Amino acid sequence: MSVRTLPLLFLNLGGEMLYILDQRLRAQNVPGDKARKVLNDIISTMFNRKFMEELFKPQELYSKKALRTVYDRLAHASIMRLNQASMDKLYDLMTMAFKYQVLLCPRPKDVLLVTFNHLDAIKGFIQDSPTILHQVDETFQQLTEIYGGLSAGEFQLIRQTLLIFFQDLHVRVSIFLKDKVQNSNGRFVLPVSGPLPWGTKVPGLIRTFNDKGEEVRKVEFKHGGSYVTAPKEGSFELYGDRVLKLGTNMYSVNRPVETHMSGASENLAAQTQESIAPNPLAKEELNLLARLIGGMEIKKPSGPEPGFRLNLFTTDEEEEQAALTRPEELFYEVINIQATQDQQTNEELARIMGEFEISDQPRRSASKGDDLLAMMDEL
Length: 379
Description:
Elements: H1 6-27, H2 32-46, H3 49-55, H4 64-75, E1 80-81, H5 84-104, H6 110-125, H7 130-147, H8 152-166, E2 171-173, H9 174-178, E3 194-195, E4 205-209, E5 215-220, E6 227-228, E7 259-261, H10 263-271, H11 282-294, E8 308-309, H12 316-325, H13 343-355, H14 374-377
Parallel strand pairs: 1-8, 3-6
Antiparallel strand pairs: 2-7, 4-5
Helix pairs in contact: 1-2, 1-5, 1-6, 4-11, 5-8, 6-7, 11-13
């Protein structure tokens, strides 16, 4: 497991989250000033300097539940609110999109180009906000400094760590199903044709060398695919042609997107329902998570501007139906951890949780479940 994986996972999932929110804000005809405020607030929180410092420290990946909690907080960093069903759908779309991108990366190193594609698109959302643009550029520089000198083997370990994280996720997504890149069981279809990784040749020739490094035999074979040599390597500079299209915004064309749990995922969830008893490592993970999300600056809304609810479904009825049919095993339950021996840690965690309180928001009916913030408040 690579200890350099978390920043890439967080930034790419965050990029996918912003793509989806931007599409839904436009689809629901949210006024432009409100939509810009939502995206600006989320991006500013996501790229906060203190938060990035914690994120880039070498560390193991968090569990899916812990990471999901971070995105719950991030999605509610502005005046927008999502209910449980919409947050579930948002997270499913984020994770499946990035899983697909990691699977299709021609080279392990190209996961960095995927990350840069996300950052390039994020900068497009905040062109009128130079302060936030500077935050994103600083993160780009950190990525270049930390990952620019890694070997191919280190990138392979990062890619393998990401695939292990995603291996049990098989949510069907309508865009992928329509494009025939995902099967009905939620697994992706890997192409056997297309552009080759940069620096490689078209398959079809086996060369044998002797112990002196001299070529002694050539054998040709039919590869059965239709391969194209990469025209050039994608740019790893601040501005440049990434060449690779993975990580760009697939929602730029307005297309309805639905998600469905595959049968395999439902069976897996039923078989692996987590015990109520806390994991022995849970306290340590909680401490790490507290440090990470403690770096987020959740801005309290100023003035009388009202909040609004965003729906990830076409209608409210679809959203309510999704909430009713969601398997119970997949709801994110709270693990209560008694850590009374460390008074200072408890006080620090309480302070961090207190900073996440967002007050002065108009509350809607409980049936809509507008407020997910109670998830962390109950820790």
